[in-house]
Amino acid sequence: METCELTDMELWGQVRQDDGAAFRQLFDRYWERLYVYALNRIKSEADAQDVVQDVMVRVWTRRASITIETTLAAYLHAAVQYETIAQVARAAKTAGRNSELEQSILPDITAFSDPLRYKELQALAEQEIARLPEKMRQVYRLRQEEHYSVKEIAGMLGVSEQTVRNQLNTSYQKLRKQLREAILSAIFLW
Fold this sequence. Notes:
Elements: H1 8-16, H2 20-42, H3 45-61, H4 72-113, H5 115-130, H6 134-144, H7 150-157, H8 161-189
């Protein structure tokens, strides 16, 4: 029986026996379908190719330990589906990091370009900090300006560490939102 006439499970049996040619045939048989599926979800040709290649490499490297209980097609489809979800999650995380970097770098870039504008941004930040509720403002200043740890702040104020974390997170969210709007407005006005 020639390799091209073999069923998926027959080819899989050969792959488990380290047959590279059988793996190549399975790869060729499923590559396009898996790629199209990933592309429809990710909308990036390069990322879709990476997803399918990562799955196929993992299948090859783990071939001896993989047990397929349904069909090979269903197994590969599920593997690509999970890897696609992971890819989207990684991209979202990276986008979040890039957004945080832009938010922290933007004032620094402005500072280097014009000290007067940097002072204006500092004044805007100070106004927004002053608008925080008193306890939240106190926690924020102790952490950001006095550099106390969460534990130290909790001890100083007689509250739980979780309360301090909650206050910090809320203050960061409020400040980020207000400062982002103020910085963008300032940039367009400058």
